[in-house]
Amino acid sequence: MAGVASATDFFETYPNLTAYNTNYTTTVTKSGSGREDVELRVQGATSAWYPTSLFDSDTSVSNIKWSMVDGSNSAVSIDNANSIAESIAGKGYAAKKTATVDKTGNAGIAVVEAKNTKSGYTNSYMDFTVVVNPDNDNKIQTVSGVNVRAYDKTKGSFKFLKSASGLVNTDNISSTINYPSAMDAIKLVADNNGYTYGVQYGTEFLENVTINNKSYNYSENELGWMYAVYNTSGNLVGVSEKVGAETFDVKSGYTVVWAYVSGYDAGFPSTLSGFDTTSK
Q1: Residues with Cβ < 8 Å from 42, sequence gap 6 or more?
Q2: Which residues contact 59 (CB under 8 A, 6 or more apart)?
Q3: Could you give the CA distance from residue 144 to residue 95 in angstroms, rounded to a whole number?
């Protein structure tokens, strides 16, 4: 780790944020009682993300504010936006925040975001995910009334393929996540269980899907499936932009949109009204 920069040029040298001795994702098992604290810490990073550095002062730390991303599971909370400047063995300071998990609350995912609020550096942020996961009691969990749409966007615009509504359950995808997810929802629009999934960086991702008797197959760095979720008002749920489909907990009345894209930028609109539902 690089040495601590002087107070006058810390963010000039380390404009980005990255985790400090903190997992990017923490899983807490849902239970009938109790709470659990999850400690989150960030430090500075260069424009290339390495080397990294602890903050030089509590003044620098005070620029780092925390928030819950829109659509986060309400079982996860923070007390306020401010960071705690945690001294690390005389080497500098980490910006610390404690997220509290109500283990009796809803299962699902939350994203806690640390953001630099100093002028000129407000594009710098770091996201941490907290998963509240039910016990693996071999019971199939279900959610009814979930809407799913599929689109082909390989030619630049969203071409409608298929839509469906129905029950989503946890046996559609083999996963360590024990609640119905956006990944599980793909079954509603795939032909006769015509979908496969793989594992990348420790998490499941959608590979190949057959819709209307046509296969839409994954090709690394070229073609693949991306998703977004919209709430009952038709607005994009912010958390779905931050986490993989395997961990996003679907709700009744929500709409999961899957898009087959070229590259990694689907460009999902902010509302459902931005999509066409007419086959072309």
Answers
A1: 17, 18, 19, 20, 22, 64, 94, 95, 114, 126
A2: 7
A3: 41
Least reliable range by pLDDT among 26-30, 53-57, 174-178, 231-235: 174-178
What's the CA gap between 242 and 228, in Å, rounded?
10
Q: What is the pLDDT of residue 7?
A: 45
pTM for this entry = 0.91
Q: Which residues contact 259 (CB under 8 A, 6 or more apart)?
A: 150, 151, 152, 153, 158, 225, 226, 227, 228, 266, 268
List all residues 6 or more positions away from 264 whose beta carbon is below 8 Å from its beta carbon. 224, 226
Please report, for residues 31, 109, 240, 255, the alpha-carbon distance to residue 74 in angstroms, rounded to integers and kept in the order given: 15, 9, 15, 20
pLDDT digits (tens, 9 = 90+) for 22-61: 999 999 999 989 999 999 999 999 999 999 999 999 999 9
The separation between the first and the last C-alpha atoms of the chain, rounded to the nearest angstrom, is 54
- Alpha-carbon dihedral of residues 160, 166, 172, 176, nearest 10 degrees? 100
Query: Contact, 131 vs 76, CB < 8 A?
Result: no
**269 phi and psi, to 5 degrees?**
-70, 165
241 phi, psi to nearest 5 deg: -80, -10
Q: Tell me, what's the pLDDT at 104?
A: 95
Q: What is the pLDDT of residues 143-155, one digit of tens each?
A: 999 999 999 999 9
Q: What are phi and psi of 262, to 5 degrees?
A: -100, 120
Look-up of token digits 């936006």: 81
**What mean pLDDT is reported for the chain?**
93
Tokens 């979930």, located at residue: 146
Pair 26, 128: CB distance under 8 Å: yes
